User: Fold this.
Amino acid sequence: MQYWDPRIEEMPVEDLRKTQYKLLKSLVCRLYSFSSFYHDRMKEQKVHPDDIKKLSDIRKLPFMFKRDLRDNYPNRIFTASQEELVRYHVSSGTTGKPTVVGYTQRDLDLWTTSLARGLTSFGLGRGDVIQVSYGYGLFTGGLGMHYGAERIGATVLPTSVGNTERQLELMQDLDVTAIACTPSYLLHIGEVAEKMGIDIKKDTRLRTGILGAEPWTENMRARIENWLGIKAYDIYGTSELSGPMFTECSEQNGFHIWSDIAYVEIVDPKTGEPLDTGEKGELTITMLQKEALPMIRYRIGDVSSIEDEVCPCGRTSPRIKRIQGRVDDMLIIRGINVFPSQVEYTLMSIPEIGEHFQIVVERSGALDDMLVRVELTKESFSDKINDLMRIRQNVEHRLRNTLNVAVDVELVEPGSLPRFEGKSKKVIDKRVL
Amino acid sequence: MDRKKYVIKQISIFSENRPGRLASVAHALGEERINILAFSIAEASGFGVIRALVDHPEKAFEKLSSLGFNVAFTEVIAVQMKDQPGGLYEIAKILGDAGINIEYSYAYSGKKAAVLILRVDQVEEAIDKVLASGATLLEYSVFH
Assistant:
């Protein structure tokens, strides 16, 4: 059994809790003194750092939501100055404004450490070549995995996404042993390999998949493992927490949420009441050591449950179960988070089309396809096909810019999309995972 | 010269590319006893535009609009062609030589002669050139 950080990973649960309490207490004191945002929030909630006397007192603290980041765009709740920041990542917000996350060097180190522990638990290390096929750039996936893989001494092949034939060629030529990407992209790679006459089992040294950024199932895991002859591990994270950072271990049964890095709660999404161990609810995480953008009781919106029995792998940090859905209407398209509200916001600024829309998500082959159906207004109807094509392309372009994911647009007749009273059901998700 | 009498009101209808859309347009026009004299469908991916010359364009416009269709009027001209080899060439050459671009066109072979419906970028120029060449333009009264 290999550990990256045996002292922390095997630390008795009680000691971990003591560590967490100390970290929480100093975090709360720091924020109360130095952040007007957290100070005001705590005042509103009538809670003072002195009220935090034990770990469970965390329940007295106010929640944070994604909207807090949007409302304070781009950096108003950062608790580090620009001089202290070494990186930004940007993800899509729920409406027009994206979410910006800043990192100090220490924030990056913690993120990287968290991944180093996970990758080590998969048995990866210096002898490995890890192909990082998550997107590099504003998205956290590529750079996050990159530094995690370098930290354990593996050799990184930073292919990013796309150009699958070339990815396969390099995978063979450079003896890649592990790949980090979305599970659907790995399935796509498998399909392309078959077409090229490459048998991943025999013709490559690939043995490990580090798969995340989108929901998948045990069925998909079994399919990937049997078909490609690899071990497929799930990885979890979101940019607000840093990026992809919590992984399964060799047991493949839940993500270890390192206790020195994060405190995890499951709450009732309606009332915010904390739920008992094992109960299903909204994943809520407090990042205990983040400097630039602390997240306190952050309601992520993902549905999961906590497993706090010590894992057979020997690691003592609690685990959360595979993500079982969302409490809101967020979609994940090719690893990118998409909110229907973003689509609505974008469409509202395009005069040629009406206010109603419908999103249809399908999986063609292994990859997600997102179609947005919009109604052409009477005023903008032109007899010329070219004009109509231009309108459609403009809508596609605008949506792509906001969502960071390619979208097909279909122009439909006015009045033809279903109208709903109250909370509308504007998404048809036909994917079977 | 009164060029206006040669300008014909075509109706254009936006249609999703799915079964039954043409049938509902045709049914609506039939119900109103509107006769379709010529028509064509232009298709793009996912949608199309139905273009038609009808005997009562205003009535057709109202009826289809009331059913929720996106309808527009478009000005076209109709040129009589010789219903024999080379007939289309004659007309196309006149416009080509004059630098007039045909955006789209469709044709029907009528009782007396073949007719070419043209949507061009310069309507008045086209009318002048066609008439000057000696070819026959149909007046809108032939249709409406």
The longest strand of chain B covers residues 71-81. Residues 6-74 of chain B form a domain with the VC0802-like fold (CATH 3.30.2130.10).
